[in-house]
């Protein structure tokens, strides 16, 4: 089991089972939502339990995706593709070791100009 929370602890969650290798997304929306690029893992919805869901707020960033954050401290937590049986969880929200390693970078064509990707992982332009 993996545990996580927002910065202030108002939103807490647990994930049953292993985490998939995370990807780093450099798209403009992820950069705007997190303040930098986003690293996240995808898990089945049924594996996630959220405590204090009343402080979890959802922003619909498109017709297909909503993004979850804490309404108290503003921590970015979830990437939720609507109508898909999985949810993305931002790696920085985990409190316990994840036993994962970054697998790849996506949307690198949109990355910020203030950093370089030098880790030699696969990079998808979109």
Automatic annotation (TrEMBL):
<comment type="similarity">
    <text>Belongs to the Gfa family.</text>
</comment>
<keyword id="KW-0456">Lyase</keyword>
<dbReference type="Pfam" id="PF04828">
    <property type="entry name" value="GFA"/>
</dbReference>
<dbReference type="InterPro" id="IPR006913">
    <property type="entry name" value="CENP-V/GFA"/>
</dbReference>
<protein>
    <submittedName>
        <fullName>Aldehyde-activating protein</fullName>
    </submittedName>
</protein>
<dbReference type="InterPro" id="IPR011057">
    <property type="entry name" value="Mss4-like_sf"/>
</dbReference>
<keyword id="KW-0862">Zinc</keyword>
<keyword id="KW-0479">Metal-binding</keyword>
<feature type="domain" description="CENP-V/GFA">
    <location>
        <begin position="2"/>
        <end position="116"/>
    </location>
</feature>
């Amino acid at each position: 089991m993996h545990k996580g929370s927002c910065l202030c602890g108002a939103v807490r969650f647990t994930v049953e089972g292993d985490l998939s290798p995370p990807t780093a997304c450099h798209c403009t929306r992820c950069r705007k939502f997190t303040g930098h690029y986003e690293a996240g893992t995808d898990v089945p919805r049924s594996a996630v339990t959220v405590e204090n869901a009343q402080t979890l707020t959802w922003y619909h960033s498109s017709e297909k995706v909503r993004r979850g954050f804490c309404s108290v401290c503003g921590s970015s937590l979830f990437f939720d593709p609507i109508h898909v049986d999985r949810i993305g969880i931002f790696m920085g929200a985990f409190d316990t070791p994840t036993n994962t390693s970054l697998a790849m970078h996506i949307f690198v064509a949109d990355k910020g100009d203030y950093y370089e990707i030098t880790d030699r992982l696969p990079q998808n332009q979109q």
